[in-house]
Write a structure and sequence with these properties.
This protein is α+β, with helices and mostly antiparallel strands. The protein contains 13 helices and 9 strands. The chain is 51% helix and 19% strand.
């Protein structure tokens, strides 16, 4: 029996058990490295083999994926490199990496991609933390997305940025792999990875749709209109929902004085800018409590809170119940609807 025939027979056997096998294997979660709120999924070798051979997935696929919030003393060194490309997207803090004998500094809203097979090292800057999204990936078209990304590239918030959507794509990739049941989940994760990497590699094209919608909106962003300034500030808040930002950060972005801007914002939104920002965080927390299985401390860190008790108190004050009770109530309601 030739090699292809063996593969075909093996695949036919596997298909009969795929829902059970993939469900158990694809949900293998990486052992914690000691960072509070971290999340990661490692695709087992058996499934990586399927990714390599599937006619759709082999174009681009994930082998490991994760999120490290406020990681201090994080460091990784690979003296011989690995057979995967490594994307690291820093959304907060500072870090570094060394590649081809050169050292690079990395700061908030920057990403880089380490090439496969090349020795490298990276980590949080000395005395600092960094919050990173990271993906190990391979595939026939992996090099296309990695082209030109060996140096730090900026992904800063702007009127036409769409950072929040990109982070949602990442969460969807993780959820798909964690909850996956069959080959279709691997294919969907691969499709999402194409979109995610394209949002970085082709940043101008990715943001162009935001410009289009803004130009066709009845309430466009415009520094010449008060309502445009407030909309721009809210957009900035949503793009930085996972960070701890100050009023001065918002003022620097919109270019207004504190008194004038705060008065305008409160007139239109009914509260101060920072109170509104916290309200957005609580809304985002509610959405994650309803739609994900993330632990409460993971949600806390994803929203930029270092103190889970403080987050719980803020949530309880806003919602009239604790995060855990809110989640339980949502699940009970969903079960009632299903019946």
């Amino acid at each position: 029996m030739d090699y292809l025939a063996v593969c075909f027979e093996t695949w036919n056997i596997f298909r009969n058990f795929a829902p059970v096998i993939i469900r158990k294997a694809i949900a293998m979660v990486r052992k914690k490295d000691g960072f509070w709120g971290e999340r990661a999924v490692v695709v087992p070798p058996m499934l990586v083999k399927i990714e390599e051979e599937d006619p759709l997935v082999r174009s681009l696929f994930i082998t490991d994926i994760g999120y490290y919030p406020m990681a201090e003393h994080h460091y990784c060194s690979r003296e011989e490199g690995i057979n995967q490309y490594v994307l690291i997207y820093c959304v907060e803090g500072h870090g570094f990496y060394r590649l081809r004998g050169k050292a690079f500094a990395v700061s908030r809203n920057q990403y880089f991609i380490l090439p496969a097979g090349i020795p490298h090292e990276y980590g949080a800057a000395e005395g600092a933390q960094w919050t990173i999204y990271w993906v190990h990936f391979r595939g026939e078209h992996a090099a296309v997305y990695a082209d030109g990304a060996e140096k730090p590239s900026d992904v800063k918030a702007a009127l036409n940025s769409n950072i929040a959507n990109r982070n949602n794509i990442f969460e969807e990739m993780m959820a798909t792999l964690h909850l996956g049941e069959d080959i279709e989940d691997l294919r969907y994760a691969s499709s999402l990875l194409h979109y995610y990497l394209a949002s970085l590699r082709y940043l101008r094209q990715y943001r162009r749709s935001v410009d289009y919608h803004a130009s066709n909106s009845s309430r466009p962003f415009s520094s010449g209109k008060g309502i445009g300034i407030v909309d721009a500030a809210v957009h900035y808040m949503k793009e930085n929902i996972e960070r701890r930002i100050t009023l001065q950060d918002i003022l620097d972005y919109v270019g207004y004085s504190s008194t004038r801007f705060s008065s305008l914002f409160k007139k239109q939104r009914g509260c101060s800018p920072l109170a509104y920002f916290n309200r957005l965080k609580i809304e985002y927390a509610c959405d994650m409590l309803r739609t994900t299985d993330m632990h409460i401390n993971q949600i806390c860190f994803k929203l930029g809170f270092e103190d889970a008790l403080y987050f719980s108190r803020m949530f309880s004050k806003a919602m009239g119940m604790s995060p855990s009770k809110y989640r339980n109530n949502c699940r009970k309601y969903e079960e009632k609807i299903e019946k």
